[in-house]
Amino acid sequence: MKTSTILTAVLFALFTQLPAYCAEEKDHDHAQEEKHVHAENVTKGPHGGHVIESKGGFSFEVTVDKDRKARIVFLDKENKIAALADQSITGIAGERSAPTKITFAKGADSDANVLIADKPLPAGAHVPVILSIKVSTDAKTVVERFELHLH
Which CATH number covers residue 120? Predict the structure, then answer.
């Protein structure tokens, strides 16, 4: 009798503490993983922005101006700004519950090689972005998903 009572008490104690222990370990691992992602996977471009290596075989840099409008330049193999031709970009930024649709237009004068968003990005330090990119009028659309870290 004593053995079963002690065993029941020990098992009860273990099972009541197990969910808290698992949640603590999960949060701890996620925090370390997030630091790892920020430290190694963010490449800076010529303007200090985020460089995205597209699965379409090209790369581009995303920066955000003081009005929170995204600015995109395409990059060559040496990470230098490439001239714009027929590239076009549309996208969605922000959370799914309140997305902001954005269209990019070619800038003027000193911004002739920059595609500039028509609307500001939603508020927040971490903004999810989905872009639909065409590098030429007859090219297949490439979809890129990433999160801008604006801090």
Answer: 2.60.40.3340
